[in-house]
Structures are given as structure tokens and as C-alpha cells.
Design goal:
The protein folds into two domains: 31 residues; 132 residues, 3-Layer(aba) Sandwich (Protein Transport Mog1p, Chain A), CATH 3.40.1000. It has 168 residues and is an alpha+beta fold. It contains three helices and ten strands; from the N terminus they run H-E-E-E-E-E-H-E-E-E-E-H-E.
Length: 168
């Protein structure tokens, strides 16, 4: 085979691979946007992190995936709709958290005073409008983040209101 044939074969294989990924992603994407679901018609569960001693209720249409450092992602299909983040300022700046953004206002989260941030969170070339509720906790920052256009939907409001810090 010459170089042109090898390149054509490589491009063909990459195109087929991309098509498979797109097809799988399409199968994993929910047909109904989260904000169109009725909060009262959903089943709810509670996620508890015993290391950081917090809990949050979430609709079972979301899939939580926790980590050892106390963070949890709540996925709807492949997208992350909510996240609990536990970080310091240095690491938070590296991962595109709220640091460096002006607070939008004062809040209470889990009984603690904190601040609300609305900002663009960047993951590589992609940006998502993010609303974060942040408190100082155990020498770091604990934040409940929602991917949102600025106004929380009923599901996100229910999750926010359910967040509690069990003990410190």
C-alpha cells in the first residue's frame, strides 16, 4: 500500500469510529430535557458523603458518581447537571471553579453562610453557564454547582434546598 492508500484507510477508520461514538452518545442522551421533567413526578434518593458529612437529595433520573475527596457529579445522560465540589483556591482555579469571579450575593448552604457565583465554567474549548453556592468548610471550600442559564429549575431548587451538612 502506498501513503495515499494508508491515509485514506486511516481517515475511513476514524470516520467510522466517530460515527460509532456519536451513535452511542445519542443512545445515552435523554430525550426529555431535565428542566422539562415535573419535580413532583420524579422518584428521589439521598446521596450521603460520610467523609465530609453532607447529604443531598436528587432525582433518580440522575446518576451520582462520587470520589474519595468528597466530590460528586450528578449526570443526566452524559451531561453533568449538578456537582458538589470540595477544593482549595489553588486547585479550584486550575479546574475552572468559581475563584476569580465576583460573588453574586450572600447565601446559606447547609446552615453555613456563603456566597453565590454565576459564571462560565470552561472544560477545554466548551463553556457551561454555572451557578455555584459556596461555603468555607474544614479549611477549604465546599460548593454545590448547577449547570444553568442563571435561574435554577425546580429540580435544581429542590436539590439546593435539600443540601445539608450533617456534622462538622
Amino acid at each position: 500500500m502506498n501513503c495515499k492508500q494508508l491515509n485514506a484507510k486511516r481517515i475511513f477508520i476514524q470516520a467510522i469510529s466517530l460515527g460509532i461514538v456519536i451513535a452511542i452518545a445519542g443512545c445515552q442522551s435523554p430525550k426529555t430535557p431535565l428542566e422539562n421533567l415535573n419535580v413532583n413526578e420524579l422518584s428521589w434518593a439521598t446521596y450521603t458523603d460520610n467523609k465530609l458529612n453532607y447529604s443531598i437529595s436528587y432525582p433518580t433520573v440522575l446518576t451520582p458518581s462520587g470520589s474519595e475527596n468528597g466530590e460528586v457529579l450528578f449526570r443526566y445522560g452524559w451531561g453533568v447537571t449538578a456537582r458538589v465540589r470540595y477544593t482549595n483556591e489553588t486547585d479550584g482555579k486550575k479546574t475552572g471553579a468559581w475563584f476569580g469571579n465576583k460573588p453574586f450575593g450572600k447565601i446559606k448552604l447547609g446552615g453555613y453562610d456563603g456566597e453565590k457565583f454565576i459564571y462560565e465554567h470552561y472544560d477545554g474549548p466548551f463553556a457551561a453557564k454555572t451557578v455555584s453556592y459556596v461555603i468555607e468548610y474544614r479549611g477549604k471550600f465546599l460548593g454545590l454547582e448547577f449547570r444553568s442559564d442563571g435561574e435554577l429549575n425546580d429540580i435544581q431548587k429542590t436539590m439546593l434546598n435539600s443540601f445539608s451538612v450533617l456534622t462538622n
